[in-house]
Amino acid sequence: MSALLEVIAVTPDEARVIEAAGADRIELVSALGEGGLTPGFGLMKRVVLAVRIPVNVMIRPHSRGFHYSPEDLEVMKEEILAAREARANGVVLGLLEDHARVDTKNLEALLAVAGGLEVTFHRAIDVAQDAVEAIRVLARYPPIRTVLTSGGRGRIEDNVATLARMRENAGHLRIMAGGGLNLENITRIAESAAPHDFHYGTAVRLGRAIDGEILPEPIARLKRMISGASV
Q1: Which of 111, 180, 215, 224 could form a disulfide with 156 if both were Cys (CB 3.0 to 4.6 A apart)?
Q2: Which domains does the chain have, with CATH numbers?
Q3: CA–CA gap between residue 91 and residue 151 (Å, rounded)
C-alpha cells in the first residue's frame, strides 16, 4: 500500500479543493485554532456528501487536554454515533489518564461504540509519558488503524529517532506523521523515520495560517513527493 496523504478541512468547499488536488483522505474538524474539535452533525453530512474520498471526523469535545470526565465521554459517544449516521469513513480520537498513559478503559468504551468505523488515535500520543510504550499499548487494539504523531513534544524534525522507534513497535498500526510537517522537511522525515502516511494542516494554507485558504498546488506537489513511498 502506498503512502497516504491526509489534509484537514473545516468546510465542504475546502474538502472539494483537497480532493481535487489529489489528497487521499480528509480529516474534518471545527475550531482549527484550538487544535481541532468535533464538527457539528450538519457539517459532517455536507462534507461526506461533497467528496468521494474518505472523511474521518475529529471526536474531541474540548481543547482542555486529553483527560475526559464521564460526561465528556458520553458526549464523545454521541459524537461517534453522529459520525456514523453521517456516513463518515472513520473517527479521530485520543485520550490519556492523568499520568499521561493511554486511558485504555475509556478507549475500549469508545471503540465499542465506533465498531465498523476506521479509528485514528490522534496527537494526544505526543503528550504521553512514553510515546513508544503508548504505541505498544495501542497496537493491542485492532480497530485502531492509524496513529497521528509528531514523535512527541517539540519539533517533528527533532523527533525522527522517536518516530522511527514508534514505527518499529507499531504492529498493525500505520504511523501518520503530522504536526509541523511541511514541504521543506517531508523528504528528510520520510527518509529518516519512514512513516507510513502523512498529514497536513496549516502547511497547505495561504500564509500557513490557521484561517488561510486551502491551496491546491502544495497538496498536489506533496502527493507527487510521497506517491512513490514504500511502506
Answers
A1: 180
A2: 5-226 (3.20.20.380)
A3: 21
- For residues 24 and 5, is the Cβ–Cβ distance under 8 A? yes
Residue 173: all three cell numbers together: 498500526
Q: What share of the chain is helix, strand, coil (3-state, %, to 5)?
A: 45, 20, 40
> What's the length of the chain?
231
Instruction: Render pLDDT for 128-172 as a digit per residue (tens, 0 to 9).
Output: 999 999 999 999 999 999 999 999 999 999 999 999 999 999 999
Check if the beta carbon of residue 110 is closer than 8 Å to that of residue 166: no
Cα(193)–Cα(163) distance, integer angstroms:
6
DSSP reduced 3-state for 205: strand
Residue at 15: amino acid letter: A
Q: 225 burial class (0-12, 13-18, 19+ CB within 10 angstroms)?
A: middle
User: What cell numbers appear for 46 in the block?
Assistant: 455536507
Nearest-5° Cα angle at 16, 10 to 17: 90
**Kindly report the CA angle at 12 between 9 and 223, in degrees rounded to 5?**
50
Cβ proximity of 139 and 119 under 8 Å:
no
Place of cell 503512502: 3
Distance between CA 110 and CA 47 in Å, rounded?
23
CB atoms within 10 A of CB 76: 23
Under DSSP, the state recorded for 152 is S
Burial string for 135-152 (b: 16+ CB within 10 Å, else e) reads: bebbeebebbbbbbbbbb
